[in-house]
Design goal:
This protein has 103 residues and is mainly alpha-helical. It has two helices and two strands. The longest helix is centred in the first third of the chain and has 59 residues. Belongs to the prefoldin subunit beta family.
């Protein structure tokens, strides 16, 4: 009978270990979802503000010089070019964010 008790004890310990692992995974998923929500908020707030500002300048001076950081290098472009690129990038990021499961 003690051999059976040992097997049950092993199974119980294994089940508890799996529950602990599952709990750790659930907590990590929660952290990642929270980070994703924060990134979405920052993206929407900051990028929308930049796009709005560039759109206002675009209405008056589409060929005005504008600088953009690309891969750590500051490049000179026009407002028209930067606005177009930024809108395309923002649309791509939004589409990617929409692929992540909602909680």
């Amino acid at each position: 009978m003690s051999a059976l008790g040992g097997i049950d004890g092993e199974k119980t310990a294994k089940i508890q270990q799996r529950r602990n692992e599952l709990q750790t995974i659930v907590e990590k998923i929660g952290e990642i979802e929270s980070d994703a929500d924060e990134h979405r908020y920052v993206l929407e707030t900051n990028v929308s503000l930049v796009v709005k500002t560039l759109a206002e300048v675009y209405e008056r001076e589409p060929e005005r010089t504008c600088f953009r950081l690309v891969g750590g290098v500051l490049v000179e472009r026009t407002v028209k070019d930067v606005l177009s690129t930024l809108q395309t990038t923002m649309d791509g990021v939004r589409a990617t964010c929409n692929l992540t499961p909602a909680h």
